[in-house]
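Hi R.,

As promised on Friday, here is the backbone we talked about, encoded as structure tokens. Could you run it through your design pipeline when you get a chance and send me back a sequence?
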């Protein structure tokens, strides 16, 4: 007899995002090597102490790193992918209900707040460099190789 799947609505769900990301997933490996302390110390003077809180600069850099690693060049597409992909949400610390920044946030920061300095680019390159220093087979000609040593 052919089965038929039916959608059953549940009032409560027992779901851990952590349990749905494979242990050998690339983003897990990157998460182990990344340290964002420098980001906070460098950018602390560029944010006001009053007003509403900004989007976390670590979140912005994590999203940009996903775009770099997976070749997602459009910020609009990148935000859409982060919204949908569980591994991306986990890496960005968004959980299931966290809001993904609007794609325009990246442009506003690049062409507004940080236009006169290369600080965001420098910090992004620092984050990529952290990944590369621990990556086996990194090529100096900007060829990406994401083969990590066995854990």
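Update: got your reply. Pasting your designed sequence below so it's all in one thread:
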């Amino acid at each position: 007899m052919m089965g038929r799947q039916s959608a059953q609505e549940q009032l409560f769900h027992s779901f851990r995002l952590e349990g749905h990301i494979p242990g050998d997933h690339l983003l897990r490996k990157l998460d182990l090597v990344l340290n964002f302390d420098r980001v906070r110390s460098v950018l602390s003077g560029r944010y006001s102490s009053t007003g509403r809180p900004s989007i976390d600069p670590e979140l912005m850099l994590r999203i940009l790193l996903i775009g770099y690693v997976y070749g997602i060049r459009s910020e609009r597409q990148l935000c859409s992918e982060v919204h949908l992909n569980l591994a991306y949400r986990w890496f960005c610390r968004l959980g299931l209900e966290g809001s993904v920044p609007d794609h325009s946030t990246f442009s506003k920061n690049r062409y507004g707040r940080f236009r006169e300095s290369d600080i965001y680019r420098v910090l992004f390159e620092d984050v990529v460099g952290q990944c590369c220093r621990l990556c086996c087979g990194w090529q100096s000609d900007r060829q990406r190789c994401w083969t990590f040593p066995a854990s």
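One thing I noticed while checking it: The first helix runs from residue 26 to 33.

Thanks again,
M.
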